[in-house]
Design goal:
- Keywords: Signal.
- Pfam families: LpxR.
- This is Outer membrane protein.
- The protein is 13% helix and 50% strand.
- It has 309 residues and is mainly β.
Length: 309
């Protein structure tokens, strides 16, 4: 079975199962929350390169939230959007062997449930790539307005081609309450635009985020709040993970770029929530090299704001 058909088959199967559950239980489901996170290397190391920026958002529906996930597959649904720009290090003069430009928009349906003390998140996405997304024009416009390197035609001409690519992901994790500290080890597998397996952990100091649903950003691994429980105060988070990468559509062989098989992410962040519900999150993530010619890793900053007046 060829890889694209294999991915589409399993992604379609997962979507069909969740949609069937949605139709059967629509009367029991309500909107539970919304979350988003903005990531950009200008908030990190200050450069505009490689994994330069993305925004992820999630809208969650399910039965009444009781501080934990339901046990039924498909009872809780998350509609997920991610927009991402990946770029060579220098848009005006890309070096030979640097990665191609990528504009990607993904739209997905995911479910969250708990079995045997393990939290599962799984689902499928359709990832739209290429100039059809308009992200290269948007990126160029931002540089014109805010300042930045001009795009040379070579960057646009060699960007990842127009396509719609199915993708699937499953994550399993478990929270361990250690008093003032919560430990969450996890494992993840992705198949589609990138084929990889990943293991890691996050440690949280403080009460903000406890009893909530947090969703993991695909680029940085930072977890953002989607279902809120009021808790004025702070939480400090540190985490990291390692991955084995089998293949990546973002680094196609025709580009002459060789995928680095191992990846590491190290992250930290701070949640703050005020008494009126205003909440802020800032985090920073170090991403290791993703292809052989990448000369160093990079730091990406993450920002999440929820304002209440």
């Amino acid at each position: 079975m060829k890889r694209p058909f294999f991915i589409a088959f399993w992604a379609g199967l997962a979507l069909s199962a969740m949609l069937s559950s949605t139709m059967a239980e629509a009367g029991e489901r309500q909107r539970l929350g919304y979350g988003r996170i903005f990531n950009n290397d200008l908030l990190g190391d200050g450069h505009d390169r490689w994994r330069t920026g993305n925004i992820a958002s999630s809208r969650v529906w399910g039965p009444s939230w009781q501080g934990r996930l339901p046990q039924g597959f498909g009872q809780m649904l998350e509609f997920r959007f991610n927009g991402e720009i990946i770029a060579p290090e220098n848009l005006s003069n890309p070096a030979p062997g640097d990665r191609p430009y990528v504009g990607a928009l993904s739209f997905g349906l995911h479910t969250h449930f708990e079995r045997g003390g393990i939290d599962y998140a799984m689902g499928a996405d359709l990832v739209v790539t290429g100039s059809q997304t308009g992200l290269d024009d948007f990126h160029d416009f931002l540089h014109d307005v805010l300042g930045g390197r001009d795009f040379v035609p070579q960057v646009r001409d060699t960007q990842l081609s127009n396509a719609i690519r199915p993708s699937a992901v499953i994550e399993a994790g478990r929270d361990y309450d250690l008093g003032a500290v919560r430990l969450r080890p996890f494992a993840e597998a992705r198949l589609g635009v990138e084929d990889l397996i990943r293991v890691g952990a996050d440690i949280t100091f403080g009460g903000v985020g406890e009893g909530e649903l947090l969703v993991r950003d695909p680029v940085t691994g930072q977890r953002y709040r989607t279902i809120y429980e009021p808790h004025a105060g702070y939480s400090f988070v540190i985490g990291g993970d390692v991955a084995y990468v089998g293949d990546s559509d973002y680094l196609p062989s025709r580009s002459g770029v060789n995928v680095t098989e191992d990846r590491t992410r190290l992250r930290a962040g701070l949640h703050w929530e005020g008494r009126n519900g205003t909440a802020i999150y800032y985090g920073v993530t170090w991403l290791s090299e993703e292809f052989d010619a990448q000369r160093e890793g990079q730091f990406v900053g993450s920002l999440r704001l929820r304002l209440r007046f």
